[in-house]
């Protein structure tokens, strides 16, 4: 893709006025979007207005529509909900109401609207745009505005961002707020599991989602629930018996608790509602289990936004301003959304129509069609859930006589256990025997290997760290012993879950194939490391959890800094030489600067940052936050930067430093890491099955080609298997990072939002795509 980079410096907002409003149900992350729209708008010299209380404020006008400054959006990044308010608005549904709204906008010269809300809000915005010229003519006839204004403000441009915790909007992988809502649900489920365990209880949890089962489905996947009810996939006739059999079988397997998740809009195949109370009564009557219902309600909408939602909303907000600046009278109203890890623009009405198609399919009982219309990501979640939650009786399982070993390599990363659980269960379903290796390659050499069963991995998804144990040791010095163990246990395939060491380990094992036939078996690696530094994958398991830890800590530190006033914090993050955590942490926490190895910096830049902070202290925002990757520069250490800032800031601000350390490797995995780990690992095990069939000849497995040693990674919009041999050319082995990293493109974003002048390559954005054409494999940056 050799294109000339296109920079937005050529796009000026001078003379333009942009208004931003939030409408419909609130969602965490809306404030991050509002902040990004305001700051990007001001950055390109446009006037930016808040419209308070959604469309109601637009109709009422007056103090509800106010021009805002850079500082107006300070300290809102970490706040849930929406600070500019949201309201359901009846008057806007009438032409009379829209007439008032148009007058209020024209009086302020506003012809660019950024609407953050659900499909109802966006449909309303589109209608308003279509009627705009007619509304202005009517206002002119009534003498409210003059002919000059009709000509000057002839067109209204609209860009939407979808803020909805339900993730019910077609065309976008993740809507703003979905990830945070999953965080709330998982926090509750994790807490309930400990009490349910104590009393051998069954819990029925009701989660939001009147018309969409995304939250229920993904939280069921993320906590390994026993049963889930969602509107798109009603249970078959006789489900009551099937569910009760399943629950009692689980109890018989010594499982002390059952979790059942019900979406509030759950229905049976006759379109009759299935309520949490109905499920509870059924379990009590049929099985006599001690059963409780917990309705999560508005807890799911509350709390601070997750790191994912802040970054998503910040990227979308900037993209929305670019889309408004580039809009012409002929451009259809669009929504900015995420596909994989790429920002895309889609025609608003195409998305709305497709979203309505899903509802129509459900109303007419075409449930398979409804699942398909929800998109590939939803379908994959459903298939993975079905694969992992129900164990088929042994008699029904195929027998392949293949033995597959699973091991963790490198430092612990949250989500590794979810990946092991998925590998074990999918492997057993495919008919293999699965062996767990304790303590990585070192444990392998020592014979620490045992068969692992379906029940052994129950309850693993929510556990942090690595239950199997993990070591950084590489296999090169143990080749002889590992080959011997593979021979003894008749291992026919290897699945390695880990970081850069796992990648190096597979390279060493494939190099040793000439000498040892035992290594001529299919091998696959699933990337799991907080550093996110594995070549061949944009994301690795564990990085999202670490990012949330960094973001939470920065929030607390910012709070302490704003209490004392005029204080700058220097925070050191992990990541080896990879600046992912520092850069993305800075974007999610609203930092002033982030020092990383990938972007060399010198004393002049440090000086410029100090001056920038000195200027900032003169405004109402009297605090600073600076992140530094642990290996960004061997001489400009955290201590050095701290001392430099302390000296240069004397009399203006004082400094504190904080090294986050191993806190970033611990903790319960985030919903993203649980799900990413589960789905990527299930796919890797299916690849192993396919390769075993292909390479089984004359009673033995023999695989010695490059494509039998692969890394499964997330690339832009797809999950792809790449031979590790081919990834060598993409790797900087000295610094243990990929030579090209996608997230470096987001670096200018952080600088713009922190008020630095910079250039931002927008070549990737700007093309309007069509919904139907989106690759259905978009497995995402979403979960």
Automatic annotation (TrEMBL):
<feature type="binding site" description="in other chain">
    <location>
        <begin position="208"/>
        <end position="210"/>
    </location>
    <ligand>
        <name>substrate</name>
    </ligand>
</feature>
<feature type="domain" description="Phosphofructokinase">
    <location>
        <begin position="403"/>
        <end position="688"/>
    </location>
</feature>
<dbReference type="GO" id="GO:0061621">
    <property type="term" value="P:canonical glycolysis"/>
</dbReference>
<keyword id="KW-0007">Acetylation</keyword>
<keyword id="KW-0963">Cytoplasm</keyword>
<dbReference type="GO" id="GO:0042802">
    <property type="term" value="F:identical protein binding"/>
</dbReference>
<comment type="pathway">
    <text>Carbohydrate degradation; glycolysis; D-glyceraldehyde 3-phosphate and glycerone phosphate from D-glucose: step 3/4.</text>
</comment>
<feature type="region of interest" description="C-terminal regulatory PFK domain 2">
    <location>
        <begin position="403"/>
        <end position="783"/>
    </location>
</feature>
<keyword id="KW-0808">Transferase</keyword>
<feature type="binding site" description="in other chain">
    <location>
        <position position="630"/>
    </location>
    <ligand>
        <name>beta-D-fructose 2,6-bisphosphate</name>
    </ligand>
</feature>
<comment type="function">
    <text>Catalyzes the phosphorylation of D-fructose 6-phosphate to fructose 1,6-bisphosphate by ATP, the first committing step of glycolysis.</text>
</comment>
<protein>
    <recommendedName>
        <fullName>ATP-dependent 6-phosphofructokinase</fullName>
        <ecNumber>2.7.1.11</ecNumber>
    </recommendedName>
</protein>
<feature type="binding site" description="in other chain">
    <location>
        <position position="472"/>
    </location>
    <ligand>
        <name>beta-D-fructose 2,6-bisphosphate</name>
    </ligand>
</feature>
<dbReference type="GO" id="GO:0030388">
    <property type="term" value="P:fructose 1,6-bisphosphate metabolic process"/>
</dbReference>
<dbReference type="InterPro" id="IPR041914">
    <property type="entry name" value="PFK_vert-type"/>
</dbReference>
<dbReference type="InterPro" id="IPR035966">
    <property type="entry name" value="PKF_sf"/>
</dbReference>
<keyword id="KW-0418">Kinase</keyword>
<comment type="subunit">
    <text>Homo- and heterotetramers.</text>
</comment>
<keyword id="KW-0460">Magnesium</keyword>
<dbReference type="GO" id="GO:0046872">
    <property type="term" value="F:metal ion binding"/>
</dbReference>
<feature type="region of interest" description="N-terminal catalytic PFK domain 1">
    <location>
        <begin position="1"/>
        <end position="390"/>
    </location>
</feature>
<feature type="binding site">
    <location>
        <position position="292"/>
    </location>
    <ligand>
        <name>substrate</name>
    </ligand>
</feature>
<dbReference type="InterPro" id="IPR000023">
    <property type="entry name" value="Phosphofructokinase_dom"/>
</dbReference>
<feature type="binding site" description="in other chain">
    <location>
        <position position="736"/>
    </location>
    <ligand>
        <name>beta-D-fructose 2,6-bisphosphate</name>
    </ligand>
</feature>
<feature type="binding site">
    <location>
        <position position="119"/>
    </location>
    <ligand>
        <name>Mg(2+)</name>
    </ligand>
</feature>
<feature type="binding site">
    <location>
        <begin position="88"/>
        <end position="89"/>
    </location>
    <ligand>
        <name>ATP</name>
    </ligand>
</feature>
<dbReference type="Pfam" id="PF00365">
    <property type="entry name" value="PFK"/>
</dbReference>
<feature type="binding site">
    <location>
        <begin position="118"/>
        <end position="121"/>
    </location>
    <ligand>
        <name>ATP</name>
    </ligand>
</feature>
<feature type="binding site">
    <location>
        <position position="25"/>
    </location>
    <ligand>
        <name>ATP</name>
    </ligand>
</feature>
<feature type="binding site" description="in other chain">
    <location>
        <position position="264"/>
    </location>
    <ligand>
        <name>substrate</name>
    </ligand>
</feature>
<dbReference type="GO" id="GO:0005945">
    <property type="term" value="C:6-phosphofructokinase complex"/>
</dbReference>
<feature type="binding site" description="in other chain">
    <location>
        <begin position="574"/>
        <end position="576"/>
    </location>
    <ligand>
        <name>beta-D-fructose 2,6-bisphosphate</name>
    </ligand>
</feature>
<comment type="similarity">
    <text>Belongs to the phosphofructokinase type A (PFKA) family. ATP-dependent PFK group I subfamily. Eukaryotic two domain clade "E" sub-subfamily.</text>
</comment>
<keyword id="KW-0324">Glycolysis</keyword>
<comment type="similarity">
    <text>Belongs to the phosphofructokinase type A (PFKA) family. ATP-dependent PFK group I subfamily. Eukaryotic two domain clade 'E' sub-subfamily.</text>
</comment>
<feature type="binding site" description="in other chain">
    <location>
        <begin position="164"/>
        <end position="166"/>
    </location>
    <ligand>
        <name>substrate</name>
    </ligand>
</feature>
<feature type="binding site" description="in other chain">
    <location>
        <begin position="298"/>
        <end position="301"/>
    </location>
    <ligand>
        <name>substrate</name>
    </ligand>
</feature>
<feature type="domain" description="Phosphofructokinase">
    <location>
        <begin position="18"/>
        <end position="323"/>
    </location>
</feature>
<dbReference type="GO" id="GO:0016208">
    <property type="term" value="F:AMP binding"/>
</dbReference>
<dbReference type="GO" id="GO:0003872">
    <property type="term" value="F:6-phosphofructokinase activity"/>
</dbReference>
<dbReference type="GO" id="GO:0016020">
    <property type="term" value="C:membrane"/>
</dbReference>
<feature type="active site" description="Proton acceptor">
    <location>
        <position position="166"/>
    </location>
</feature>
């Amino acid at each position: 893709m050799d294109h000339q980079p296109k920079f937005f410096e050529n796009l000026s907002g001078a003379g333009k006025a942009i208004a931003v409003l939030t409408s419909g149900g609130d969602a965490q992350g809306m404030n991050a979007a509002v902040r990004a729209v305001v700051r990007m708008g001001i950055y390109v010299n446009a006037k930016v207005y808040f419209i308070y209380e959604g469309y109601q404020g637009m109709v009422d006008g007056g103090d509800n529509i106010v021009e805002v400054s850079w500082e107006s959006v300070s300290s809102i990044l970490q706040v849930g909900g929406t600070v500019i308010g949201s309201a359901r608005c009846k008057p806007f549904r009438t032409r009379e109401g829209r007439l008032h709204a148009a007058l209020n906008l024209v009086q302020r010269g506003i012809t660019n609207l950024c609407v953050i809300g659900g499909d109802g809000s966006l449909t309303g915005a589109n209608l308003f745009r279509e009627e705009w010229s007619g509304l202005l003519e009517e206002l002119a006839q009534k003498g409210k505005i003059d002919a000059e204004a009709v000509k000057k403000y002839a067109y209204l441009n609209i860009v939407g961002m979808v803020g909805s915790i339900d993730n019910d909007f077609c065309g976008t992988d993740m809507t703003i707020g979905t990830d945070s809502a999953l965080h709330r649900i998982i926090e509750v489920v994790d807490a309930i599991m400990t009490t349910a365990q104590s009393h051998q209880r069954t819990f029925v949890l009701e989660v939001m989602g009147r018309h969409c089962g995304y939250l229920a489905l993904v939280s069921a996947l993320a906590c390994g629930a026993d049963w889930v009810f969602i509107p798109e996939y009603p249970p078959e006739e006789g489900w009551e018996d099937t569910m009760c059999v399943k629950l009692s079988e689980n109890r018989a397997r010594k499982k002390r608790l059952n979790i059942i998740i019900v979406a509030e809009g759950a229905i049976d195949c006759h379109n009759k509602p299935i309520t949490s109370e109905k499920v509870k009564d059924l379990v009590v009557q049929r099985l006599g289990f001690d059963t409780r219902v917990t309705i999560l309600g508005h807890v799911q909408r509350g709390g601070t936004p997750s790191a994912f939602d802040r970054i998503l909303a910040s990227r979308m907000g900037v993209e929305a301003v670019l889309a408004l600046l580039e809009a012409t009278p002929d451009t259809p109203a669009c929504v900015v959304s995420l596909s994989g890890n790429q920002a895309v623009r889609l025609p608003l009405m195409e998305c709305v129509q497709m979203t309505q198609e899903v509802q129509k399919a459900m109303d007419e009982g075409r449930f398979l069609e409804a699942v398909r219309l929800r998109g590939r990501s939803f379908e994959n979640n459903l298939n993975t859930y079905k694969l992992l939650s129900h164990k088929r009786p042994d008699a029904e399982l195929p027998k392949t006589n293949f033995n597959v070993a699973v091991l963790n390599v490198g430092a612990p990363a949250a989500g590794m256990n979810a990946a092991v659980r998925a590998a074990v269960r999918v492997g057993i379903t495919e008919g293999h025997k699965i062996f767990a290796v304790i303590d990585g390659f070192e444990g392998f050499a020592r014979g620490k290997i045992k068969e692992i069963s379906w029940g052994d991995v129950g309850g693993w998804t929510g556990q942090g760290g690595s239950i199997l144990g993990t070591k950084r040791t590489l296999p090169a010095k143990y080749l002889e012993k590992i080959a011997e163990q593979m021979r003894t246990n008749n291992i026919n395939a290897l699945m390695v879950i880990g970081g850069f060491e796992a990648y190096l380990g597979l390279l060493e094992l494939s190099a040793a194939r000439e000498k040892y036939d035992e290594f001529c078996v299919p091998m696959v690696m699933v990337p799991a490391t907080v550093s996110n530094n594995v070549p061949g994958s944009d994301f690795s398991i564990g990085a999202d959890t670490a990012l949330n830890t960094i973001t939470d800590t920065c929030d607390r530190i910012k709070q302490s800094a704003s209490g004392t006033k005029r204080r700058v914090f220097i925070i050191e993050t992990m990541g080896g030489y990879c600046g992912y955590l520092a850069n993305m942490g800075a974007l999610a926490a609203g930092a002033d600067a982030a020092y990383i190895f990938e972007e060399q910096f010198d004393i002049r830049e440090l000086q410029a940052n100090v001056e920038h902070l000195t200027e900032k202290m003169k405004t109402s925002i009297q605090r600073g936050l600076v992140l530094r990757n642990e290996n960004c520069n061997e001489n400009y250490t955290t201590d050095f930067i701290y001392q430099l800032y302390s000296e240069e800031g004397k009399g203006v601000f004082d400094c504190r430093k904080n090294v986050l350390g191993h806190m970033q490797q611990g903790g319960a995995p985030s919903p993203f890491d649980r799900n990413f780990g589960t789905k990527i690992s299930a796919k890797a095990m299916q690849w192993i099955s396919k390769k075993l069939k292909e390479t089984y000849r004359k009673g033995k497995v023999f695989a010695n080609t490059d494509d039998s040693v692969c890394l499964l990674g997330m690339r832009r919009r797809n999950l792809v298997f790449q031979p590790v041999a081919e990834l060598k050319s993409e790797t900087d082995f000295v610094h243990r990072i990929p030579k090209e990293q996608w997230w470096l493109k987001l670096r200018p974003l952080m600088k713009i939002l922190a008020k630095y002048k910079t250039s931002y390559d927008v070549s990737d954005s700007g093309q309007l795509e069509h919904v139907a054409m989106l690759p259905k494999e978009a497995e995402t940056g979403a979960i």
